[in-house]
């Protein structure tokens, strides 16, 4: 984020320098817009996956362990540049009100997904459970961002999520 300049963004986008400075008065404004775009895409994919995961509620097809597997798949499919954007948003949010609002939107989307799945499974306190689940996923995401090893993350993440889901559903 610190290396972003109008010139570098224009070069990467293949547009004249005047284009980026015409649409974005400051580099901070441009960075926030880019982060917002990535966050919106991530939120849309989370919302779509959640609808798919809880879509079988009330039928004999809903299976909490299958839902957990889908969460793991969703997490491992997040591209590294989205993880970079997510953690940049989190780290910079105390210094930038626009990024703070974006961080809250992201966190709310993640928690909404976990809460919907816990509710579908019959959890008595899905809100608390959702926060615990997202904290676990964020921990894995941070480690994955710093040290990518998706194949090694699958089993321990699935095990941790299974334990948390069942702790709040039992």
TrEMBL record:
Residue intervals passing through the bilayer: none
Domain Tetracyclin repressor-like C-terminal group: 67-164
SUPFAM superfamilies: Homeodomain-like, Tetracyclin repressor-like, C-terminal domain
Gene3D superfamilies, per the entry: Tetracycline Repressor, domain 2 (1.10.357.10)
Signal sequence bounds: none
Family annotation (InterPro entries): Homeodomain-like_sf, Tet_transcr_reg_TetR-rel_C_sf, TetR_C_31
Pfam family, one: TetR_C_31
Full protein name: Tetracyclin repressor-like C-terminal group 31 domain-containing protein
Biological source species: Nocardia terpenica
